[in-house]
Design goal:
With about 250 residues, the chain is of the alpha+beta class. The chain is about 35% helix and about 35% strand. The chain folds into two domains: about 80 residues, GMP Synthetase, Chain A, domain 3 (2-Layer Sandwich), CATH 3.30.300; about 120 residues, Double Stranded RNA Binding Domain (2-Layer Sandwich), CATH 3.30.160.270. The chain contains six helices and nine strands. Helix 5 packs parallel to helix 6. The chain starts with 20 loop residues before the first helix and ends with a helix.
């Protein structure tokens, strides 16, 4: 047997039940054969080419490196014969091998990890607590770098402007403590609305030798304005902190 069965799918009224829709869209069983081949160990992708009469003319397979092509061909022949009753001439099977193919999930995970390692500072937490005096709040911020976590807090008036400014100041203090050089100072914080969204925009100064460098950062307000203020500080200082990152 060198081709798929040419028997057309039975009528829905025949037999004891309705035929699956896939039988009508895949009368030669090509997709079933391709799914079978990709289930074999070491095979990443497969394509089966048939003639108009359903005879198999080509089988193309992409496999992982390190596997013997002859063994792969034998596995393919055996699987098709055992599961589908299909006997294929080994000369119709072509094998291509790739050096390294990872699942999409693994690639995404690696990309996220590599991206996070490029950032000097990582966000840990921001908390707003009742202040020690009436109408005051204490904003606590935690940031980390290379596994070291630093906390800082600032007290401010209990209004949106005061809380956002306190969050930015506490975030800059955390960055300073992680770097250990006390070279950052907040110059200003502003909440802006553009493109039907709200953002926190911060301006800070960084001391570099005898000169000061202007650092700016923005972050969209999503969960809270205080959280956005911390991310705006991280946006402004990430490159600065990365250059001063302890070895």
């Amino acid at each position: 047997m060198t081709g798929f069965s040419s028997r057309q799918p039975a009528s829905p009224s025949a037999g004891t039940g309705r035929e699956p829709a896939s039988d009508f869209s895949d009368p030669w069983g090509v997709r079933r054969a391709e799914n079978l081949l990709t289930s074999l160990e070491g095979i990443l992708a497969a394509r089966v080419v048939t003639t108009p009469l359903g005879e198999v003319s080509e089988v193309h397979v992409l496999a992982q490196s390190g596997l013997q092509p002859k063994q792969l061909v034998r596995n393919i022949e055996s699987a098709l014969l055992a599961h589908l009753g299909l006997k294929i001439d080994h000369r119709k099977i072509s094998i291509a091998q790739t050096a390294d193919v990872k699942p999409l999930e693994a690639l995404e995970s690696t990309a996220v990890r590599d991206r996070s390692l490029q950032r000097a500072m990582l966000f840990e937490n921001v908390t707003v607590l009742a202040g020690r005096r009436p109408h005051r709040v204490t904003v606590q911020v935690s940031l980390s770098m290379d596994g070291q976590v630093e906390h800082a807090e600032e007290e401010a008036m209990d209004n949106i402007k005061g809380r956002v400014e306190a969050a930015a100041k506490a975030a800059l203090s955390s960055v300073d403590r992680l770097l250990g050089d006390h070279s950052l100072a907040l110059e200003g914080v502003r909440m802006v609305e553009e493109f039907d969204r709200e953002f926190v925009f911060i301006v800070a100064q960084g001391l570099s030798g005898r000169e000061t460098v202007l650092l700016t950062g923005t972050a969209e307000i999503r969960e809270s304005a205080e959280r956005a203020a911390v991310f705006a500080v991280m946006d402004a200082t990430n490159r600065w902190a990365n250059l001063r990152r302890p070895s």
